[in-house]
Amino acid sequence: MVRRLFAELFVLFGVAGAILLALNWFYSDYKTPIDLTFESIDTANPSVQTLLSGNSHMGAMTHNLYIDTNAVNVSMGGQDVFHQLLIAEYAMGKMPALKTIVMNLDPEMLGTSLAYSNQEYIDRQYYPHTHLLYDNTFGNRLISSSAFFRSNRDLNYLFQHKRMEQEFKSVGRKANFLPNEKPSPELCKKRAIELTSVKFKKPLVDESLKKLHEIIVLAKEKSISLVLITTPRRPCYMSYADTGNMNYAIRRLQTFLATENVPLYNYYDAPGFDDSDFRDPDHMND
Question: 264: number of CA atoms within 13 Å, CB side?
Answer without folding.
Answer: 21
